[in-house]
Structures are given as C-alpha cells and as structure tokens.
Amino acid sequence: MTTNRKGRARPPIQIRETDAERISNLVLDRKEHMPGVADLLLAEISRAKLVDDARLPPDVVAMQSTVTFVDEASGVERTLQLVYPHDADIEAGRISIMSLVGAGLLGLRPGQAISWPNRVGEERPLRIIEVTQG
User: Fold this and answer.
1) Is-above-0.70 flag for pTM?
2) 86 CB contacts (<8 Å, ≥6 apart)?
3) CATH node for 14-132
4) Which stretches of the chain score pLDDT less than 50?
C-alpha cells in the first residue's frame, strides 16, 4: 500500500490497461496546464494493478463508470459518471478524470476509501458506495 502526502495509506486499486494508457497520454498532453492533477494521476497509475480490459471486476471505478461516493468530511453523497474531459458536464453528472475528485475515484471499489486532496490542498476522505459500468 502506498501513502498520501500526509503518510496515510492509500487502498489498492485496479485500472484497465486501456484506461491507463489513454489517461497517461492525456496527462502528458495536459501536464503543463494541470500539474497537480497530472502528478496525482500518474502516481495512481504507477501504483495500480493494471488488468486486461475484460478482466476488470464490474464493481471497480473505471472510465465511463457511474460511481456513488460520500465525502466523509462533509457527509455529502454524490453520484457521478467518470469521463474524459471532452465529455465532462458536472450539471449532467459527468466528472472529468482530470479533476481532483475524478482522479481520486479511479480504481476504487465499494467500501474502499481514499484520503484525497481538494482544490486548496486539504485531504478529504472519499468513500465508494456503489459502482456501475456505463
């Protein structure tokens, strides 16, 4: 298990090989404009267990998944679909993988929680409740 900036353990994650490749390419394209998110995503991909696309369990957050999660610090529960930036529309419930929250959800399963930074750098515990593949 790896740790976050405050030394808290991060849960194990799994990512589809195709998603890892596409996200890595996207991050390298946008690293200059979004260095914080880019670095976090690259770190998550490097620590993840990469699995063949067809072998990813259906309850793992992947691209196009719909995930219900709770910010345990505020108690706010949200349901969002994880998408690439060109499909993002927060009003329609689609969050970009290049957002801090989107990056933090990738690879998690129901019951898992991750302490993840928000826009001002505070660590927020995000806990996965449900995942459906889209």
Assistant:
1) yes
2) none
3) 3.10.50.30
4) 1, 4
